[in-house]
Write a structure and sequence with these properties.
With about 230 residues, the protein is α+β, with helices and mostly antiparallel strands. The chain has helices at about 5, 15-30, 80-90, 125-130, 150-160, 165-175, 185-200, 220-230; strands spanning about 35-40, 50, 55-60, 65-70, 75, 80, 105, 110-120, 140-145, 205-210, 215.
Length: about 230
């Protein structure tokens, strides 16, 4: 069978024998290579996808003689196959989000839903929050995500432990009214950081919509509306 026939389907599993042979070759020759999670077909004839560290993608040939780092581009379809694969691997099932570690802001009928990860010291987040006031009929699950330093953790704790999380949060993000010192069990914050690391949430704000689509960055209210409408 020609190689093109073997690799017609991207990310299909390889045979057990080939999997074992490639793993053996790579681990023996590259002892510092992280543990291999999975080996699949890449969609390009003669090239295998090797997944390591959960979501990192590298490529190798059928015998594990070469290792390639970088993006695999389908020039005909003009698609970044590596990027698409990572997005698929890091996709989040909205209903499986740890909502107990977030607080909820409801506007209007609250029918539309979005989860937002924000660091209280993120300037882009503050700009985003001011614009988000223009979006109505939405339920916002706000995950405090302190990744910018110790003060971010302190502010997040003060917000999380306040009597009215929503008011304290918005007073700071929109009015620059610093949250008063407060103490409680704030372990949710560390769980949020761990969750974000697992799913590659590397910047704030990051939005996750009800259909699982993820949008990094402070997008304008009009774009939020568009994603909310498409996620129904």
């Amino acid at each position: 069978m020609p190689a093109s026939g073997l690799f017609a389907q991207s990310n299909a599993p390889v045979s057990a024998a080939q999997d074992a042979a490639v793993r053996k070759a790579l681990t023996e020759r590259l002892p510092n290579l992280p543990k291999i999670d999975e080996i699949t077909r890449s969609g390009m004839p003669g090239l295998l996808e090797v997944r390591i560290n959960g979501f990192d993608i590298v490529y190798t040939d059928l015998e594990g003689n070469f290792l390639i780092q970088g993006n695999l581009i389908d020039t005909r379809a003009k698609r970044n196959l590596t990027e698409e694969r990572i997005e698929k691997l890091t996709a989040v099932d909205f209903d499986s989000l740890p909502f107990k570690d977030a607080f909820t802001i409801v506007r209007g009928n609250g029918k539309r839903k979005v989860a937002v990860f924000e660091d209280p010291n993120c300037g882009y987040c503050k700009r985003f929050e001011r614009d988000l006031q223009n979006v109505n009929n939405v339920t916002i699950h706000m995950f405090l995500y302190p990744i910018l330093g110790a003060d971010s953790t302190a502010k997040s704790q003060n917000i999380w432990c306040s009597k009215d999380k929503t008011k304290t949060f918005l007073d700071w993000m929109i009015k620059d009214a610093a949250p008063a010192a407060a103490a409680c069990d704030a372990s949710a914050l560390q769980r949020n950081v761990e969750f974000g690391k697992k799913y590659r949430i590397t910047g704030t704000p990051t939005l996750i919509f009800a259909d699982g689509s993820r949008v990094p960055g402070a997008i304008p209210a009009a774009q939020v509306e568009k994603f909310l409408s498409e996620a129904k």
